[in-house]
Design brief:
- By secondary structure, this protein is α/β, with parallel strands linked by helices.
- It has one domain: P-loop containing nucleotide triphosphate hydrolases (Rossmann fold, 3-Layer(aba) Sandwich), CATH 3.40.50.300.
- A six-stranded mixed sheet has the order 6-7-8-3-9-10.
- It is globular, with a radius of gyration of 17 Å.
């Protein structure tokens, strides 16, 4: 479903810096992997390339057979909106919208009718254990609950690919464990391939497999 082939990225400047080199990866629907590696090795850069927010210097990124490196900005924006979901460490929940409105945002952007968007948002909130909280405001929730909202928002439009960048970095261990269990359950239920970038061994252990990003590319954890 997602295929990375010889992906490379170098940042130019006073001193050019090779961030990614010959990265290969094959990821199937419903597969949930963790990407680990030392700080500064390029994990976030890898996610940015897969999301089409940055362009590689070499190699290709194919999602369902479509080569992202051949798409213009408008096409990439549409593809992200329709086929990708994102979960971040900082939640990025909009404070002035209700929980249901936050979750419904991807549907509204994809021009789903308002009534249907509201119904699907409510169903997703129930799926992540926040039933009856549609009209609550983000300020009323704990960090773990806010991350549940972020997961609901990331999955409500049934994306093919979910990208999670340190999603438990701001959570206490108990909340992190609950969020990771929920993330895995929802990925498997909805058959959305997922890449989890994390420094946490406990978080990585919830994945189907762990890959390590090195200066020479990705390798399977031993």
């Amino acid at each position: 479903m997602l295929v990375l082939d010889k992906l490379s990225k170098t940042y130019q400047g006073a001193r050019s810096r090779s961030v990614l080199r010959d990265v290969d990866l094959v990821l199937g629907s419903g597969e949930y992997i963790a990407v680990m590696g030392e700080s500064g090795i390029g994990k976030s850069t890898l996610l940015n390339l897969i999301a089409g927010l940055d362009q590689p210097d070499a190699g290709s990124i194919r999602l369902d057979g479509v080569d992202l490196t051949g798409l213009d900005d408008d096409a990439l924006t549409i593809l992200r909106r329709e086929s990708m979901g994102f979960v971040f460490q900082a939640f990025h929940i909009l404070p002035y919208l209700t929980l249901a409105q936050n979750v419904a945002l991807p549907l509204i952007l994809n021009r789903v009718a308002e009534n249907e968007a509201a119904a699907r948002a409510g169903a997703m909130l129930s799926a992540v254990g926040l039933q009856g909280r549609e009209t609550s405001m983000p300020r009323e929730l704990s960090g773990g609950e806010l991350q549940r909202v972020a997961i609901a928002r990331a999955l409500v439009h049934q994306p093919k690919l979910l990208l999670a960048d340190e999603p438990t970095g701001n959570l206490d261990p108990d909340s992190a464990a609950q969020v990771l269990a929920l993330l895995r359950e929802q990925v498997k239920t909805r058959q959305a391939a997922c890449i989890l970038v994390t420094h946490s061994q406990a978080a990585a252990a919830t994945a189907d497999r762990i890959v390590i990003l090195t200066a020479q590319g990705l390798r399977e954890a031993g």
